[in-house]
Amino acid sequence: MRFGFRSLKWRIAAWTALILLSMQIGALLLFAQIGRTSALAEVGIQLDTGNRVFARLIDQRSAQLAQAARVLAADYGFRDALLSRDRATIESALDNHGSRIGAALMLLIGLDGRVIGAHPPRPDAIELGTVRSLIDEAGKEGGANGFQFLDGALYQVVVVPVRAPVAVAWVVIGFPADEVFVQDLKRLTGLEVSLKFESAAQAQAMIASTLALALQPALLHTPSLESMELDSVEYAGRVHVIEADDTGRVTAVLQLSLARALQPWNKLYRDWTGLSIAATLLMLLASVWVGRTIASPVTRLAQFARRVEGGDYAAPPRSESGDEIAQLADAFGVMTDAIASREARISELAYCDALTGLPNRVRFMAWLEQSLQAVQLSGQPLALLSFDIDRFKLINDTLGHGFGDRVLHEVGQRLLALELSGDAGCGCGGRDDEDERAPMRSATARLGGDEFAVLLPAADLAAALTVAERVANALEQPMNVQGQLVDLRASIGIALYPQHATDAAELIRCADVAMYKAKRGIDGVEVYDPAHHERNAARLSLLTELRQAVEGHELVLFYQPKYAFQASDELHVEALVRWIHPQRGFISPMDFIPFAEQTGYIRTITHWVMNESIRQCAQWQRSGRKVHIGLNLSARDLLQPELPAQFCALLERHACRADWITLEITESAVLDDPAKALANLEHLRATGCRLSIDDYGTGYSSLSYVRQMPVQELKIDRSFVMNLITQPDDEIIVRSTIELAHNMGLTVTAEGVETEAVLQRLAELGCDLAQGYFICRPLGVAELETWLQTSPWARAGHHQRALADETQPD
């Protein structure tokens, strides 16, 4: 038997016992809390009842004393003796009456406050103390009672007048508030009764108490009399003030021990504790038995599972119990049979592409690794071809993925027919011993999607090019798929060992780089050139640095002026972004703008350009210069829903008028998503800015969209303007465009003006603005200010004046 929590049966026993023990402990704590709460409630009820009984007893005793005093004061003989000053008769009457009612003190006090008679007789004078206040009260009310101190002892005192017929004396009867008094109250109320006196002048003093003498000092020093602990015994209490005046206060403390109230609950608590212990032990034994019952079959099944892991699929021994464990064992037997039958199929599919019948990437990579090891030992070369089908996405999008799968199947059959592999089929069902024969064998595989590869051990570049030509010719033959003729073309990249790479991953990467280079060419076959990778890496590095350029203020704006053929005091410029790299220097926009558009980072650059252009325009306006700034928007920018709101926010931030800003867009930007683009253009036009169609004439649907676009300007592409003088067709296009734009109420700007002859011809054709290197190259802000001061082209209409000067006679 194995002990420890790693064993299932002991974990079952331990958790079961822990759960039961937690429940029992919780129940015990709950019972203790309930018992104490109930006992406190019961004690509270008894205290409240005892307090009311105590108050009633005090009142009744006072009433009895007052009645006894009135009987004595009304006695004829007693009043006669008082009037005759018969002291012996007075004292005898006081003695008889006091003995009859059990009074401890009988006094007859004259109106002058002197004691006329007393019982028991006293040789010395009696200090009346605060009794005089009761006499004054009795004079007003006809009687008074209360607890007063006489000769240092506390008495319950009653004062009544002796009338003949007016008050001639006062009868004072007192009963001591001593141990006998509090014991009587305890018998009547069932509570512990303690009388104590407290005043500001002296410490608290115990007058009388039913508590044990040893507990009385603790009672005097207990801060809370409602709940206290005396000699490890809990008491609950109530405080009853029975007398209070300027000299101090007499209070009665009524107490009741909690021990009696808790006694039945303590018994229940002890009984439940014993029952819990017995139940826990019993459950522990039961859980051990249950754990062994469950764990033993599970242990046997675990041993069987380990055998299955090692490849032994023999069914587990059947259990004779017929319970759920036996059913589980039978299910294991059925499962292992299914696993055994599927393992062969899985082994086959793990290395074979089911669609084409070719080896898959996993098998191909294994062959490539083994072939590289072999050629490294033999010193022979090795070639790798990587190719995919051009425009295959168009086939999927147009004819569906099912049709695309049939095309890939046909491609696989054609590759198998070329017999480029050492075997005619997949060869995927073999085991490791077959893999040992794989090295130094040609192989064709489908790597994924429409991507394929051919491994050519012991092949140089010439052999690789021959195989690439065979593959290209085989795939270019028209395919008849479901009655549909399909023309395919493959782009093939070639990488060689050891010239290009020495490991499998790097060799495939080199072949892929060459394949993508082949896609951009016309031959369809490309051999890897390290320069391809270096250019790609440089561009990728450049794109990474571009993200830092915006934050590092490496981007700057240049402004290229436009020449206005009509005289005006306003200047038109186009904002062009430039990148001044701290190490590489000036970087052409053609080297980073296309990549920024592909990755979407163009949005950040456009926002920066808009912010800088609007800021500069506002600054020129404040300095008195009337400068219109045009800036370019890409297709990605135009399709942003938030573009109009961003543009308005920048105008408000820099306090710039919108009509001084011209946003230039290309036709292709609208063609990507016409509905969304035109909606954004309407929103931008509503801001008050000007809109211009850039590179007009290079699109495919110019006229159909120009009439829908809310633009104010057309910019004729430089390809038509540069050869305006030498190419008559270009002049026809330019003249027609100018006439069309003017008929539509649009301004025309000609780009690419490189010669004065072109500028003069544009003036004759009625062009509005001209832009090109002949007028001015893009300038920084400082250089532009200088150009405005010194260049004759900065003054609108200069060219017309120059022409006019040339026509004047000498």
From TrEMBL:
Keyword Transmembrane found: yes
Keywords: Membrane, Transmembrane, Transmembrane helix
Domain HAMP span(s) in chain numbering: 292-344
Domain GGDEF: 380-530
Cited InterPro entries: Biofilm_reg_signaling, dCache_3, EAL_dom, EAL_sf, GGDEF_dom, HAMP_dom, Nucleotide_cyclase, Rev_trsase/Diguanyl_cyclase
Biological processes, Gene Ontology terms: signal transduction
One Pfam family of this chain: HAMP
SUPFAM superfamilies found in the cross-reference section: EAL domain-like (SSF141868), HAMP domain-like (SSF158472), Nucleotide cyclase (SSF55073)
Gene Ontology cellular component annotations, sorted alphabetically: membrane
Domain EAL: 539-792
Chain segments annotated as transmembrane: 12-32
PROSITE patterns hit by this protein: EAL, GGDEF, HAMP
UniProt keyword DNA repair present: no
PANTHER family noted in UniProt: BIOFILM ARCHITECTURE MAINTENANCE PROTEIN MBAA, DIGUANYLATE CYCLASE DGCP
Protein name listed in UniProt: Phosphodiesterase
Organism (species): Thauera terpenica 58Eu
